[in-house]
User: What shape does this take?
Amino acid sequence: MEHNVCFSVRDLDIRFGAVHALHRVSCDIARNGILGAIGPANSGKTTFLRALNRLNETQDNYRMSGSILLEGRDINKDFKPEGLRRRVGMIFALPMPLPLSIYENIAFGPRRQGINDKRRLDAAVEESLRSAFLWEEVKDRLKSAATKLSGGQQQRLCIARTLAVKPDVILFDEPCSGLDPISTAKVEESMVVLKKKYTIVLVTNNTKQAARVSDRVAFFLMGDLIEEDVTDRIFTSPKDKRTEDYIVGKFG
Amino acid sequence: MRRFKEFIIEKLVFLSGILVILFVCLIFVFLLKEGLSFFKDVKLSAFLLGKYWYPISEPPRFGILPLILGSLFVTLGAVLFAVPLSIGAAFYVAEIAPARIRDFLKTGIEILASIPSVVLGFVGMITLVPWIKAIFHVPTGLTALAGSIMLGFMAMPTIISISEDAITAVPRQYKEGSIALGATRWQTMYRVTIHAAKPGIIAACMLGVGRVIGETMAVMMITGNAAVIPRTFLQPVRTLTATIAAEMGEVVHGSAHYHALFSIGIILFLITFMINITADFFLHRVRTK
Assistant: This one.
């Protein structure tokens, strides 16, 4: 098991000013699997996710303690934030392409790493769009504005632009909260394909979605990690009463 | 009784709204009436392209090309000086400065905006003008350059505060999206934020230019007021505005000179009107986006 660990989180404690968002959370995230993080609003699951690519740092009054190791290296000490974020990509709840063309949205990440060769960029754009199941829909209008795409297409574009950076891990922050069922199915389908090559952490408000796609599930409640286990066990015989109550819909 | 009160208040509010527009129209009509009669005696082309402004010689010559070029030189210089500095400042205030420094800077910018232009002109006359004379070894420091720099200071508060609004209005998701793709803070600012805020920044610059072109007092004090066609920034110039301000007091009422000054007013009005329309166009584009 040990060699198969991607992230190893120990005693992660996070505050934003007076708000204590996460209470000494510890868990391991396995490579090439999908960890679903579920829990009601303000449970700390998104804060947990944003700690993994150090995106919390962009907020004021942020303080953390504890450690997060990515393949044995401390993400807060052994990485530059930009370097870390190239290995740990992120998909947001609101699909928000940059105000550029489709092509330039995908090429944005590679360009920032200094790749400007047109052939390499072309190849990266096509490959990323194919992996995100978007190529066929947009291949004839790569130069048009990305903001003109539909919601579902925009979300897959955001997946594609993250893939273009060639990360090892992809963080999904409620990626389907604004999408219709068909677009949701497409995004879920791509997640299942992607986990062969990437480690995925999925934060979702939709417990059914976590049940459909995750290999393991972590349940957060009010800043605590209540339990983390194989998906089937969480949904059939959870150890903690609170997990069961949440899953059957008694609250949340 | 209450009904009657409502009625009166409603009409009063309506009246104040209409009056503003009416005043603008009246000013414009007056300007046209006094200005257009000038063109009975002088051709428009001779007015706009004439190289000499000798309104009281015999026969008088009313060519405003030197004045237009004077305004243009001073404005261009002010833009070159103020725009890069202001956009940089706007970015610093909106994106980089910690909260305490940001508040401090914003107060400073407001104070800069509230300095009366005559005071700026006065300060420029005492400090800047001798410096220019000494540094560039020119016969007088009262030059287009001096006017440009002082007017730059006047345009800066406008450009900074409107640009800053535009930068702050860029959705957080753009910045986070860019950062999450491994872009640095600087790359995000340069590649994403400035791109998204561009219409607002352009509008800010246009409004700044509008202020510069219409400004009178400071330029009159420090540009030397020589109505000759300028060739360099180190030459005295005279602007459209300064000409009106300087000559209107002594002109014979109803003479050709008098009407010529009004025609200059019309030209100025048209220029600033066009600039404001352009700025409005860009600001509107931001809102509808």
Q: What stands out?
A: Chain A touches chain B at residues 53, 55, 58, 60, 82-83, 85-86, 89-90, 92, 94, 96-100, 108-109, 112-113, 158, 161-162, 165 (CB under 8 Å). The mean pLDDT of chain A is 90. Residues 118-131 of chain A form the longest helix (14 residues). The beta strands of chain A are 5-16, 19-30, 34-38, 62-70, 73-74, 88-91, 169-173, 199-203, 216-221, 224-230.
